[in-house]
């Protein structure tokens, strides 16, 4: 993983004293309704304000192939999808995202913030969906070519609260219900331990601003 120390967007003014963050690949993850997409946007804006560019991507999605797969995975409920095929489609979308977008962006000196990443597949398709977690980590290693986030922020929230927040029509995964989502949450917490110090669990039962503060405190203390 590249750890260059570069300001790619603009020169800092003399009165701007903050330290630049070394180029990072960050993922923000958690169950549906935990508020991660808001945090992705807040964090990207925070980097921009410090004069550093941060590219935001979503997983699944972020490429022409990925967006097509996203539609099949989330919206096209009329297409029957077995658990292994479902897992492999999430992986295919991620493989394309890594090769086409994430690796080139990091090589150019941009931070990358991903809305979800491999840990989601382990939590959803293994811990809740019944596939073997070890297999998913192994397939994930191939799909991502070993590109893994320097930091993963896991926004942890009780699924009852999270479901109450979801305003839009439930997608294919969300419509699997509360029991499924409880297993996803447990899976995130349990399998997240595999990431060691790269995983930061944040209590998502706070205001978006408070969650954001916790995320940036963790980044500036690195
Ligand atoms: P998400 O990206 O959170 O979209 P939105 O914010 O528009 O709801 O949702 C993607 C859905 O796909 C979500 O229910 C989680 C699920 N998912 C998996 O089941 N496995 C995966 O590997 C990934 C990345 C997502």
CATH architecture: 3-Layer(aba) Sandwich
* Top-tier CATH class: Alpha Beta
What is the helix/strand order?
Answer: EHEHHEHHEHHEH
Bound molecules: thymidine-5'-diphosphate
Any overview of this molecule?
The chain starts with 24 loop residues before the first strand and ends with a helix. The chain contains 8 helices and 5 strands. A 5-stranded parallel sheet has the order 2-3-1-4-5, sandwiched between helices. It is α/β, with parallel strands linked by helices and 222 residues long. The N terminus is likely disordered. The chain is 50% helix and 12% strand. The protein has one domain: Rossmann fold. Bound molecules: thymidine-5'-diphosphate.
What is this structure, in a nutshell?
This protein has about 220 residues and is of the alpha/beta class.
SSE inventory with pairings:
Blueprint lengths: L24 E6 L5 H14 L4 E5 L5 H12 L7 H25 L3 E5 L2 H11 L4 H12 L6 E6 L2 H7 L11 H16 L6 E5 L4 H13 L2
Parallel strand pairs: 1-3, 1-4, 2-3, 4-5
Helix pairs in contact: 1-8, 2-3, 3-5, 4-5, 4-7
Key structural traits:
binds thymidine-5'-diphosphate, alpha/beta, 50% helix, 222 residues, globular, 8 helices, Rossmann fold
